[in-house]
Write a structure and sequence with these properties.
single chain, 756 residues, alpha/beta, 6-stranded parallel beta sheet
């Protein structure tokens, strides 16, 4: 028996040595998944299987490199012929060899997203379509979705659901753009990122002899993080591994409880249905956790048990009991930032936890702002993992440039950044004339813009920008930075452009803009000015705020060699682990996200995300929530997340915060009639129905808290609250006739009839 097998537990060893036939390794968090995958390949090679016949698919090239390095340490001989890498990198290798079979040169270009967006802009322009109705981000995202579901342009046109959705979304020409985009890419000998999968499937479909060639080569297939695969990735795996006479030597490793990337197209069905697709599959469950203490492991088990569709398993650990989970209840997100910073100092001093073993996890990147501010105040070094510092994000710097220009019209860098952003037709030639005139006259760019001689059309477009800045200057209230900032954010067109783009990326950027405005609101109303280098209580101008932030974000002297606290989204934390985890913002409509409230499947994915967050912690886990936080400049009161009470009180250091707030969450829910947590519900009556012709929807502006309303799908309901403003108003409604009765609905899109 190979020496390296001696360090494996019995289940790990069985998973490693079962090398023939279909195998599913269900790997719980901290269970040694990477070791099993690595040693399995090493064992296969030791048993005489050629590296040439092994295909190992990972989700990062870094993981593939580390795997090969580990294999080399425990085996002898050359493993260079082993194919280990990401789906895209390995499938691109095949296409380089075989591309001519589907009409591509072997030296095809791979377009990045900027290339694709540029091509889409050209196509939209050539078709004389309204560019605002077909933003490139949105169109590229929809093309990606079509390809991932194996919908060619021809198949797309035949899909009535897709075509109907395009008509409703006011993009009736999308199918034409899609067809032109595909043709132009092929004509240019180019593939985009999705084509590396889509075209490979096409190759295998059209050329059986090529498919047979790779079936013969890749006699053993291993897939890591299988729960994160999409429909197309799994379709290719089935092509290679499942056919008449196949030994079906495919091994998948993953954890359905950590499937959190549905927004990227991943489907949990792949891992849940694997046993149906491969009837003779042998299943190994890695249930021993080597990472976390019993309180953390048991809490994770209790949380995930609430999901209906899952592969049953019981994660356990034999580590020492350790510390219980701490819960924190705060009045505001500002207090949350301060309390977390205080606790970090305590953990550093009392338990000697180093900075690089501490992480603050949040549901949305916009939440980082308040923690950045307090960590800086306490001189605690930090880094933003998988993203930029809040104040370094493009949309924040864009809006701050507008603020700077209103405060100081002579700020030339701010002028250059926003004079044509959002795009308003101020082209390169116009800018060149402004720069030249400013140089000749020795005046600032903004002054030059008002006086330079320009063609009438260019002058009209430039005057729009000048008017925005001048109106901001006139509006600037020295005692209320928020009103000034909100006016500038809207009048600049920045918020409108992000809303109009209407992609996941633009919505995230919009959340960041909202977070900045909320921070300014807090600055205006807080006695302590939220701890940002406090100023006199009466000094609440935008100028004062900008000065504070300029000091706050000056990182010129930051020592990059210092150990740093990590700030990141829960999605970015997957696969990582820390001694101390602070999971913040545990509130309904934040975590779980309000966007998940429309279906039980979406709530289940949010719960899996919570499970992932919990299981990142080795020793210390802190869960915090704020009873209020600003949204769209309005103070909104929050209920604690339903997920908190899914953790048993015996695992909590201070359970009263969750279970005894004037009675438990369950008792509060029963009194208020608001759904906050999963519970057994009485039998639901038939939903009140009304014929569509008799349904009379009210204007969104008429909907107010306390009203009884009727929804065509959900029946009768009571409006509990309305927050946001204008087109961003969102109503929280309790529908008594459905399961999961509390819903968050954007009034702009809702159809609600007011009942007397």
């Amino acid at each position: 028996m190979e020496e390296f097998l001696q360090g494996l537990n019995p289940v790990q060893k069985s998973a490693v040595t079962q090398i023939n036939g279909p195998v599913m390794v269900v790997a719980g968090p901290g269970s040694g998944k990477t070791r099993v995958l690595t040693f399995r390949i090493a064992y296969m090679i030791s048993q005489g299987i050629k590296p040439y016949n092994i295909l190992s698919l990972t989700f990062t090239n870094k993981a593939a490199r580390e795997m090969k390095e580990r294999i080399e340490k425990v085996t002898t001989g050359n493993i260079n012929s082993l194919w280990a890498g990401t789906f895209h990198s390995l499938f691109a290798r095949i296409l380089r060899i075989e591309a001519e079979h589907i009409g591509y040169p072997t030296s095809f270009t791979i377009y990045d997203s900027d290339d694709s967006k540029s091509l889409l802009r050209t196509i939209v322009k050539e078709m004389n379509l309204n560019k605002d109705a077909y933003p490139p981000n949105q169109i590229l995202s929809r093309i990606s979705s079509a390809k991932s579901n194996l919908l060619t342009p021809k198949a797309y046109v035949k899909d009535q659901n897709q075509m109907s959705a395009d008509r409703i979304a006011n993009r009736p020409h999308f199918h034409e753009i899609y067809a032109k985009y595909v043709n132009r890419c092929k004509k240019a000998g180019a593939m985009d990122f999705d084509d590396l999968l889509f075209r490979l499937f096409e190759l295998f479909q059209k050329k059986p002899d090529v498919l047979e060639k790779y079936r013969e080569r890749f006699k053993y297939i291993l897939v890591d993080e299988f729960q994160d695969t999409n429909f197309l990735q799994y379709a290719i795996i089935r092509k290679l591994a499942k056919y008449d006479g196949s030994p079906e030597n495919v091994c998948i490793v993953g954890d359905d409880a950590q499937s959190i990337y549905a927004f990227r197209g991943a489907t949990i069905d792949n891992i849940l249905d694997f046993e149906k697709d491969f009837a003779n599959v042998k299943v190994f469950k890695l249930e021993q956790n080597y990472r976390s203490t019993p309180h953390i492991v048991d809490a994770a088990n209790e949380v995930i048990s609430h999901n209906k569709r899952q592969i049953k398993k019981k994660i356990w650990t034999d580590q020492e009991e350790g510390y219980k989970i701490k819960a924190l209840k705060m009045v505001s997100d500002a207090e949350e930032g301060k309390r977390i910073a205080d606790l970090i100092l305590e953990y550093k001093n009392r338990f000697h936890v180093p900075n690089n073993e501490i992480a603050i996890l949040y549901r949305t990147n916009a939440q980082s702002r308040v923690f950045e501010e307090h960590l800086r105040r306490y001189n605690i070094p930090y880094r933003i993992y998988g993203g930029q510092s809040f104040y370094q994000r493009k949309e924040i710097k864009d809006l701050m440039a507008y603020f700077r220009l209103v405060i100081n019209p002579n700020d030339e860098e701010a002028f250059k950044r926003v004079v044509n952003f959002p795009k308003r037709g101020v082209g390169a030639s116009t800018l060149a004339k402004i720069f030249e005139f400013a140089g000749e006259e020795g005046i600032p760019l903004f002054e030059a813009a008002k006086s330079v001689m320009l063609p009438s059309r260019a002058r009209t477009q430039l005057n729009k920008f000048i008017k925005i800045i001048q109106s901001g200057i006139a509006k600037n209230d020295p005692e209320n930075a928020y009103e000034t900032a909100e006016y500038i954010a809207n009048s600049s067109g920045l918020i409108k452009s992000l809303k109009d783009e209407n992609t996941l990326e633009s919505m995230n950027r919009l959340e960041n803009v909202e977070a900045l405005l909320n921070g300014i609101k807090d600055f205006v109303e807080s006695d302590e000015v939220n701890g940002i280098n406090p100023v006199a209580a009466e000094e609440r101008s935008l100028d004062a705020y900008i000065q504070n932030i300029a000091l706050l974000t000056d990182q010129d002297n930051e020592d990059s060699d210092l150990e740093q606290v990590t700030l990141m989204s829960v999605h970015a934390a997957k696969g990582l682990e820390f001694d101390a985890i602070f999971l913040v913002g545990m509130e309904e409509n934040l975590f779980p996200s309000f966007m998940s409230m429309e279906s039980d499947q979406d709530v289940d994915e949010e719960r899996r995300l919570f499970y992932v967050a919990i299981t990142r912690a080795r020793k210390f886990l802190t869960l915090s929530f704020a009873t209020s936080r600003y949204r769209f400049g309005k103070l909104v009161y929050n209920r604690p997340s339903r997920f908190l009470e899914e953790i048993g009180a015996d695992h909590m250091e201070n359970p009263d915060i969750i279970y005894a707030r004037s009675g438990s969450m369950r008792e509060e829910t029963a009194k208020s009639g608001v759904s906050g947590i999963p519970k057994k519900r009485k039998k639901i009556n038939a939903i009140t129905r009304v014929a569509p012709k008799d349904f009379k929807p009210a204007s969104p502006t008429e909907i107010e808290a306390g009203m009884q309303v009727l929804h065509l799908k959900f029946g009768k309901g009571k409006v509990l609250s309305v927050d946001g403003r204008n087109d961003s108003k969102v109503a929280t409604i309790f529908f008594d006739e459905i399961d999961s009765p509390q819903r968050r609905i954007m009034l702009k899109f809702a159809k609600l009839q007011i009942l007397d």
